[in-house]
From TrEMBL:
The lineage of its organism: Bacteria, Bacillati, Actinomycetota, Actinomycetes, Kitasatosporales. Residues 13-328 form the FAD/NAD(P)-binding domain. Its cofactor is FAD. Residues 367-472 form the Pyridine nucleotide-disulphide oxidoreductase dimerisation domain. The keyword Flavoprotein applies. InterPro entries: Class-I_Pyr_Nuc-Dis_Oxidored, FAD/NAD-bd_sf, FAD/NAD-binding_dom, FAD/NAD-linked_Rdtase_dimer_sf, Pyr_nuc-diS_OxRdtase, Pyr_nucl-diS_OxRdtase_dimer. This is NAD(P)/FAD-dependent oxidoreductase. Keywords: FAD, Flavoprotein, NAD. Belongs to the class-I pyridine nucleotide-disulfide oxidoreductase family. The keyword Transport does not apply.
Amino acid sequence: MSETAENQASDTYDVIVLGAGPVGQNVVDRARAAGLTVAVVERELVGGECSYWACVPSKALLRPVIAIADARRVDGARQAVTGDLDTVQVFARRNHYVTDWDDSKQAEGVKSLGADLFRGHGRIDGPRRVTVTRDDGARHTLTARHAVAVATGSLPLLPEIPGIREARPWTNRHGTDSSTVPGRLAIVGGGGVGVEMATLWQGLGSQVTLLARRGLLPRMESFAGKLLERGLTEAGVDVRIGVQVTALRRPDAGGPVTVTLDDGSELEADEVMFATGRIPATEDIGLETVGLTPGAWLDVDTTCLVRGVDGHWLYALGDVNHRALLTHQGKYQARTAGDVIGARAGGLAVDDTPWGDHATTADQHAVPQVFFTDPEAAAVGLTAEQAAAAGHRIKTIDLDFNAAKGANLYADGYQGHARMVVDVDREILLGVTFVGPGVSELLHSATVAVAGEVPLKRLRHAVTCFPTVSEIWLFLLAAYQRAQD
């Protein structure tokens, strides 16, 4: 039964949303704004992965680590850092921000929007129908007049390696909900989760070994991974590039894990964590009942309508459509799709042209991403390699941050690098990458410039405040101008 009433008046709604994380909640908000009735189905915690095991807890844990690192870069503050982090208080801070894994406030938030919340496992059961099975086995069938929106997220991908089951490896969930600092932690994977977890647990006192087949942050500009490798190494992380795990051994359930690498060497750790990718959480949601493959990523158009399903009723948002596995992008998709569902339900026109009201165009051209490491790495849009491969004539402008007086005041001996990728035919930005302390706060300005396709001649009139780290914009634009003269 719905949590909002003892007696559910009807099992028919305009919209049914599978998943009550941030993405699902944004669909609810926009669908309710259009006057539609909504049912939300959640089998775990209302708030989803982001609220309890990913974005929120990881940043709550990382902030004390980065704050100490920032203090040590400022003379006068450096001398005040005389001890280690208080891990008990760090974990308590995390617990506060995840509300001790109590989702009651978020559940109330969903209901305050006017939606009915159903707890249990939701499965699509043919067109526009969802069956909810509660923990006690009770079943409730819901029918959608207009749309079913799948926002079930993704799960960690664990490779098929001998001994992995016995090793009981950590995933991102263990990496963010643990309150015990392992003496030695091996992290497998050099992407965003891997580098953030290496920063976090080394800062909390673990001896971290980071194992990556390719360079760090391989989807960003290559300099980002190199600068981050240097920063992690200086912090004490043992970074090993070009290695692959071939086997794990943990004969004693409470003992250490032996990690065998493809070069024949071995290392021992108290815990091993895999950050080697994600798979869609679509294996058991009934996709086969509408002609789709269970466990597959869902292919969508620019309105997030699932392709291959008749009737314009099934939508997929966030991680499940594999367009950008980032919470903020999923929420962007959800806002757009919620408006689309409302428009289609009302018989209104849908503008799905590029950058139109109902098109998720930014997922192809202006995806912002930040990794809260030391140094931070932030980027939006295309890398130089991606832009060239797409056929653009480009010019890249690279500068170290020491050109900006504000950067040196932010941190003594500030070390960082910036690159902008310019479409020389249109003189707009295709991509921007920053690496350095505090650069996450620069990213939205870059996102506005890329998404808005702001001409560089106009962008030069956006005056940067002195003395701030954002002065790097002034020097990047001046360098491009000199290159053109």
